[in-house]
UniProtKB/TrEMBL annotation:
Keyword hit for Nucleotide-binding: no
EC numbers: 2.3.2.2, 3.4.19.13
Keyword entries, A-Z: Acyltransferase, Glutathione biosynthesis, Hydrolase, Signal, Transferase, Zymogen
Biological or metabolic pathway of the protein: Sulfur metabolism; glutathione metabolism
Post-translational modification: Cleaved by autocatalysis into a large and a small subunit.
Signal peptide region: 1-26
Name of this chain's protein: Glutathione hydrolase proenzyme
Top-level taxon: Bacteria
The species this protein was found in: Actinoplanes subglobosus
Membership in a protein family: Belongs to the gamma-glutamyltransferase family.
Catalytic activity: an N-terminal (5-L-glutamyl)-[peptide] + an alpha-amino acid = 5-L-glutamyl amino acid + an N-terminal L-alpha-aminoacyl-[peptide]; glutathione + H2O = L-cysteinylglycine + L-glutamate; an S-substituted glutathione + H2O = an S-substituted L-cysteinylglycine + L-glutamate
A Pfam entry, by short name: G_glu_transpept
Length: 596
């Protein structure tokens, strides 16, 4: 009964006992990172959300029904990572047709945006990241709610109205604050303190909520119920749309801010017409082969599918058959550096499909892998490949591009073999830090995923802002098929490190002989084409002694990389649902019928 702890947490919360429980007990009891069994599975970062998804599966809902109910619950318990104020990418394997489809629910820039959107007209310089983030300018039109509705319409069996109910109840009743949640508020306290709505919800009494206390959000419960009654029109064209635009154009700055803020809080320019004009996209998934498996990922405006696919192809093309663990990690680090050089140069919302196709082709991988020397690391940053060249041809080096770390990921499978891999976000942890007054959700700062100024020297930058444009993402919801059937579904948050985390998880599982839970727990490293590898200390300590003699260098340790979830499909319908044992406070995996 491995899923029981999650249910226990839920019922304790329901009964109102959790606030009185010792916090250590509440935090320790609720999460089970691995679950094995049959009949469907859910893996998320949060016990309440996983319990809600499992409940939908038990009552006969399919993977899409469960994914939407789970996502709505994550909007309650992970409000600084995801929610209806943001966007994301939904990847779906349909067991009946054997097809993988995607929904691009990425946020969009206002119609009035130009490539100088993040340039201060006063001095012609790009805004600082924090100045841009905590402003109305950073919020794009959210795509999350439209994604949920469309996924249910296309593949689900339940209405959006019913799918929002468990999360509305959760928001009313509240959930237990854990150390991760408290820390996320603490990290954002200075910004939240600027806004009446944000501080009222998240800084009760002027301080972050205590670990073990119950966090309720009646405004969000009401918003979910309003949407359930009136449909998504109320969000995109009705009363909620009005409140979103008002928040963006007139940020609810407190007359008596609780802390100093170094920047002016700039209003944004998003309009009701921008919200009313929001449209989902349905790009074909990226597709590449690795070790006889077929890897499906998210296409532009995410760079995730292309970059993961390219990195895997390079590893496959370059790795000698006699490879040692050090060879494998060396190739992993070189492959992701090369893939990032190409992604930064070529991938943005409007990249031609033929270019994306080329970047995940085997000939391209051969052209890139031929730069790798088994005995010596490339000097970073490496140059992008030349799309018109051959051999090892490269072009002028671009500047590495960095992005923040937040977001959440969920993986769901049902008894019929349908699979959902869904990564969604409000960008930075805490988004643009503005709660929409009276509505209980935080707005995204996704537009800061655009490059504020050109990064590629004389070459065009594919990720500058533009009217109605979607910023490039790194989100990499991935579904791997073996002989046309699901083998593995996985994804992670973590900004640009998502691409390396997903690639490394696949390397761990497919090349380094690890089980899925071992692959999940293993220490991570991220080489995104800069001089120093960003790694967890455990990776540097374990593998650094073998990798540094090859010329790899490590930058400052990362406290943790990613917060992944995954499901592996094994023989006889047996599922291994897996989430983080430790990162982000540990995740929650559950199955409908646990294996004995
Ligand atoms: N905004 C990021 C992206 O789309 C994701 C945020 C994160 O995971 O930190 O790539």
């Amino acid at each position: 009964m491995r899923f029981l702890p999650a249910l226990t947490a839920l019922s304790l919360t329901t009964l109102g006992f959790v606030a009185a429980s010792p916090p250590a007990f509440a935090a320790a009891a609720v999460k089970e990172p691995t679950a094995t069994g049959y009949g469907g599975a859910v893996a998320t970062v949060d016990a309440d959300a996983t319990a809600i998804g499992l409940d939908v599966l038990r009552r006969g809902g399919n993977a899409v029904d469960a994914a939407v109910a789970t996502a709505a619950a994550l909007g309650v318990t992970e409000p600084f990572s995801a929610g209806i104020g943001g966007g994301g990418f939904f990847v779906y394997f349909d067991a009946r047709t054997g097809r993988v489809s995607t929904i691009d629910g990425r946020e969009t820039a206002p119609a009035s945006a130009t490539d100088r959107y993040f340039i201060d007209p006063a001095d012609g310089l790009a805004y600082d990241f924090t100045e841009a983030r905590v402003s109305g300018l950073s919020a794009g039109t959210p795509g999350t709610l439209a994604t949920w509705e469309e996924a249910l319409d296309r593949w689900g069996t339940r209405s959006l109205a019913s799918s929002l109910q468990p999360a509305a109840r959760l928001a009313d009743r509240g959930f237990t604050v854990d150390a991760t949640f408290r820390q996320q508020v603490a990290d954002n306290a200075a910004a939240f303190g600027q806004f009446t709505s944000s501080r009222e919800l998240y800084l009760p009494g002027g301080a972050p909520p205590a670990v073990g206390s119950v966090q309720r959000n009646p405004d969000l419960a009401d918003t979910y119920r309003l949407i359930a009654r009136k449909g998504t029109g109320v969000f995109y064209r009705g009363a909620v749309a009005g409140d979103i635009v008002d928040t963006i154009q007139h940020p609810p700055v407190a007359a008596d801010p609780w802390s100093t803020w170094a920047y002016p809080i700039r209003p944004g320019v998003l309009t009701r017409a921008d919200l009313a004009g929001y449209r989902l996209r349905f790009p074909a998934p990226t597709r590449s082969d690795y070790r006889g498996l077929t890897v499906y990922g998210m296409s532009a405006p995410s760079s995730g599918g292309v970059a993961v696919g390219e990195a895997l192809n390079i590893i496959e093309a370059g790795l000698p058959t006699s490879a040692t663990t050090t060879d494998k990690l060396h190739h992993y680090l070189e492959a992701t550096a090369l893939a990032f050089a190409d992604r930064n140069r070529y991938v943005g919302a409007y990249t031609e499909p033929s270019v994306l196709q080329k970047l995940i082709s085997d000939p391209w991988a051969g052209q890139r892998a031929c730069l790798i020397d088994r005995t010596k690391a490339l000097v970073k940053p490496v140059a992008p490949g030349d799309l018109n060249g051959s051999g090892c041809a490269t072009t002028a080096t671009g500047r590495p591009v960095e992005e923040g770390q937040s977001t959440t990921n969920l993986t769901v499978a049902d008894r019929w073999g349908n699979v959902v891999e869904y990564t969604f976000t409000i960008e930075a942890t805490g988004g643009n830090t503005m709660v929409v007054p009276g509505r209980g959700f935080v707005l995204n700062n996704e537009l800061t995923d655009f490059n504020f100024a050109p990064t590629q020297g004389d070459a065009p930058d594919p990720n500058l802002p533009g009217p109605g444009k979607r910023p490039r993402s790194s989100m990499s919801p991935t579904i791997v098929l073996k002989d046309g059937k699901p083998f593995l579904a996985l994804g992670s948050p973590g900004g640009a490190t998502i691409i390396t985390t997903v690639t490394q998880l696949l390397l761990n599982r497919l090349d380094l002989g690890m089980t899925l839970p071992e692959a999940m727990a293993a220490p991570r490293a991220s080489q995104r084409n800069s001089a120093g590898i960003q790694a967890e200390a455990a990776f540097r300590l374990r593998y650094g002694p073998a990798l540094t003699p090859l010329g790899h260098t490590f930058g400052a340790d990362a406290p943790e990389l990613g917060a992944a979830t995954a499901i592996e499909f094994t023989r006889g319908g047996r599922l291994i649902a897996s989430s983080e044992p430790v990162r982000r406070g540990g995740g929650a995996a559950g199955v409908v019928h646990p294996a004995r």
